[in-house]
Amino acid sequence: MATPVTLIPGDGIGPSIADATVRILAAAGADVEWDRQVAGMAGVARWNDPIPDATLDSIKRTRVALKGPLETPVGDGFRSINVALRKTFDLYANVRPAYTIVPGRFNNVDIVLVRENTEGLYIGVEHYVKIGDDPKAAAESVAIITRHGSERIVRYAFEYAIAHNRKKVTLVHKANILKFSQGLFLDVGRMIAREYEGRVQFEERIIDAMAMHLVMRPEQFDVVVTTNLFGDILSDEISGLVGGLGLAPGANFGTSAAIFEAVHGTAPDIAGKNIANPGALVLAACMMLDHIGDRGRATSIRNAFEGTIRDGLVLTRDLGGTSTTDQFTDAVIARLG
């Protein structure tokens, strides 16, 4: 029986790379029933809502979604797409793998970043502070970190390490300065780490030192777990170590759904030109297949994708070639045969 999956092609290059991904999964024989929905500017155009109720209802039904890049509308009256998805489905764990496909500046990089996705500064508790006659003389944002949120994300990182035969978890923090909020996260991390002693190594890194070590010796890191803001920054840095966001898939896991995505932007300057690299969404779809239990096909697609890139014969512009999206997709499909 086919697995129902909500497909949100997205904006800009989204529809093109989504179609490429669907073609590759079909060629691999993935038994998926796509429920196409809209969000972002496509949602605004159709429903005057960047995250329409019909799309949310579809994800509630399927509990699995694959989405392309979305453009966030500017202006009042529109809901934040990411915030709406995170709140609706409690998507507390953002997982971003990055690994070397073609040796370059850095070799043997294989890092999975696990980011707390619902708390910290991004929780959005902020306000202006009036001083004298100026109602916006200052602005204040509150970083909220809870014991519950810290426990479940750190435990998720350790369980991920065990499930994927990973050896080490690195917890990244700034508890030396933010002694309460980051201190709570660190204390909880240490407590959880003791439960996995002897099975998974554990280390702590302060965020600024971590950023430096990532560009000096990234091969020393395995699974990295951190808070929302730090995870947002480090995940892009880690993607840069292996070729950029065009090769960076992401997954968001929650209590009632899992949403897989390309984490790059909509690239409106190349939209409709058939030259976009579908790699990030293809790799996100592989994570999705792993999630629904189709690991064999996920592995086959990854091998075909990586082999196409390593051959260097059919590459999109961002990868150093001149091929179209369709030509690159055809090359991956040919390897699946």
Number of strands: 12
- Judging by the overall fold, what is the CATH architecture of the largest domain? 3-Layer(aba) Sandwich
| General shape | globular
Name the CATH homologous superfamily of the largest domain. Isopropylmalate Dehydrogenase
Q: What is the CATH T-level topology of the largest domain?
A: Isopropylmalate Dehydrogenase
| Rounded Rg | 20 Å
Runs in which pLDDT lies below 50 for 5 or more consecutive residues are: none
Ends: how far apart?
23 Å
Strand line-up in the sheet with most strands: 2-1-3-12-11-4-5-10-8-9
The percentage helix is 40-55%
Please outline the major beta sheet.
Answer: 10 strands, mixed
What string gives the helices and strands in order? EHEHHEHEEEEHEHEHEHEEHHH
Overall number of structural domains: 2
Tell me the structural class.
Answer: alpha/beta
